[in-house]
Backbone:
């Protein structure tokens, strides 16, 4: 028997389903405009550079650096109570868009702007596959 | 054509503010505050011919027609910008009265933020939170404290802004709430109290966060001409503007996560008003979080970006200080009414009705709103 998954789950739309399908197979997908090549994230229907709706999906390399963070002590949703406090990172991905994810394997005291991190994937119980970050080697 | 001095705030009203006072429903609280504002202006409820209910609030325009017996409501709108809504509604109301669509626009709000649904659940019913709801809520980014904290953390890392500097804002605001008398928080607060308060979402401690309270507030925006004949000293709207940040639905993807909508709105409002930040004698600054006050002070131009921490030190925001801010106690210590109470207080100050918190000789001031992922609004007013 699986335990009940109590965290909020995403409700994808036809515009965003490919992103979640990508995560499920271990790929963090970014939309790329088929007309002008501009990347956009999070997924949405129209390129704000050229207004084309034609797009493709490209997997992120997984390399990134810390842009900012917060340490979440108070669980505003009961589903996160057991793991509080948890660290939420805002990360500059190498491709030029940002991602958010919980940090694994490093204490908040060791965080600084620009710290290299690596994207990973994690699934809890019956929940969706979600992006997480771990410290990476400086390159 | 500009909105410069085409509209005036003619009536202000509010209920008692508190937590769990069981004063009534959110609807009845805003009816009570609205009736008080209309009476303050010396108007009859039937004189109201425009209304801008808060988009996510408990009332719609129809409620005011029904409850007040308004014979011909000529203008209704909403300004769905979260905490920026109330001040953004001043711009919308001023435009409506300046063009003759109507004469007296009611801006009401009533909330049971303490007794009713809490913020973490409430925000995710709002369409502005749809993107965060899909892509960040599942990661644990649930409530505004968590959503805004990375902005504050980056400000601290880039500029050396400290938690003690944020505490200065909380402490000064509490002092003002106590002077006001009608406030949810009544106990003095020290910097040490702030530093010892529990961490909510680092760097935000408990006392960096606004409170949840029950209450109502309302203001009446009238045409500047119509305001001449009314009961109170006129408070003219010299400039008003709203501004939307880049990547307005999600902070994570914003090119500069520190840059908020007020950066676009403030220069427009000052240009319309024909005054400079240095001319402002009192400022009611939307204070959902201490950091949000600090950052808005920078974006308005009271100080340079990165200097907000030093600017707020040493009681600078107190009455008698360099720039008296949130003289009523704000959302941090008076009541969370999405900033309608900030408008009420600015008008009170400019009329000279500020009581124990009156800023001596204040005739020119401003009020801001901040909402959702950093939407901004601002109104600059003077007595006249
Ligand atoms: Zn394009």
Residues:
């Amino acid at each position: 028997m699986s335990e009940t998954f109590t965290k909020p789950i995403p409700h994808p739309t036809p515009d965003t389903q490919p992103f979640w399908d990508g995560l499920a197979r271990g790929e963090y997908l970014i939309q790329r405009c088929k007309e002008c090549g501009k990347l956009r994230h999070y997924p949405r229907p129209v390129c704000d550079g050229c207004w084309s709706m034609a797009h493709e999906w490209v997997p992120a390399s997984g390399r990134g650096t810390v842009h900012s963070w917060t340490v979440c002590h108070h669980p505003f949703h009961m589903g996160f109570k057991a793991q509080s406090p948890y660290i939420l990172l805002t990360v500059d991905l190498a491709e030029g868009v940002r991602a958010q994810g919980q940090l694994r394997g490093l204490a908040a005291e060791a965080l600084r702007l620009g710290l290299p991190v690596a994207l990973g994937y994690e699934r809890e119980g019956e929940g969706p596959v979600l992006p997480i970050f771990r410290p990476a080697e400086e390159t | 054509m500009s909105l410069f001095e085409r509209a005036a705030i003619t009536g202000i009203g509010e209920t008692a503010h508190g937590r769990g006072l069981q004063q009534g429903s959110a609807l009845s609280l805003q009816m009570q505050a609205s009736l008080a504002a209309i009476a303050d202006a010396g108007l009859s409820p039937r004189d109201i011919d425009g209304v801008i209910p808060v988009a996510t609030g408990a009332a719609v325009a129809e409620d005011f027609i029904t409850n007040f017996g308004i014979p011909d409501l000529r203008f209704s709108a909403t300004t769905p910008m979260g905490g920026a809504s109330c001040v953004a509604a001043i711009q919308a109301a001023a435009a409506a009265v300046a063009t003759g669509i109507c004469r007296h626009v009611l801006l009401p709000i009533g909330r049971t933020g303490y007794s009713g649904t809490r913020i973490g659940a409430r925000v995710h019913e709002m369409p502005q939170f749809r993107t965060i709801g899909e892509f960040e809520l599942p990661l644990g980014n649930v409530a505004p404290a968590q959503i805004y904290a990375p902005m504050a953390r980056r400000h601290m890392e880039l500029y050396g802004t400290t938690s003690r500097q944020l505490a200065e804002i909380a402490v000064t605001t509490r002092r003002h709430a106590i002077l006001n008398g009608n406030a949810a928080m009544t106990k003095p607060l020290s910097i040490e109290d702030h530093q010892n308060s529990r961490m909510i979402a680092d760097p935000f401690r408990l006392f960096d966060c606004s409170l949840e309270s029950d209450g109502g507030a309302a203001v009446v925006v009238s045409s500047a001409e119509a305001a001449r004949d009314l009961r109170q000293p006129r408070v003219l709207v010299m400039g008003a503007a709203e501004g939307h940040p880049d990547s307005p639905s999600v902070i994570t993807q914003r090119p500069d996560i520190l840059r908020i909508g007020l950066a676009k709105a403030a220069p427009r409002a000052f240009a319309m008003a024909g005054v400079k930040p240095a001319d402002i004698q009192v400022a009611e600054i939307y204070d959902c979080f201490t950091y949000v006050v600090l950052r808005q002070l920078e974006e308005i131009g009271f100080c340079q970006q990165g200097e907000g921490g030093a600017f707020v030190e040493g009681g600078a925001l107190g009455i008698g200080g360099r720039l008296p801010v949130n003289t009523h106690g704000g959302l941090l210590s008076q009541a969370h009414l999405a900033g309608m109470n900030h408008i009420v207080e600015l008008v009170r100050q400019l009329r000279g009705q500020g009581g124990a918190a009156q800023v001596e000789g204040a005739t020119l001031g401003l009020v801001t709103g901040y909402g959702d992922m950093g939407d901004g609004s601002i109104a600059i007013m003077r007595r006249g």
The longest strand of chain A covers residues 63-72. The beta strands of chain A are 29-33, 39-40, 55-59, 63-72, 86-93, 98-103, 116-123, 129-135. The domain at 61-139 of chain A is CATH 2.40.50 (OB fold (Dihydrolipoamide Acetyltransferase, E2P)). The two ends of chain A are 44 Å apart (CA to CA).
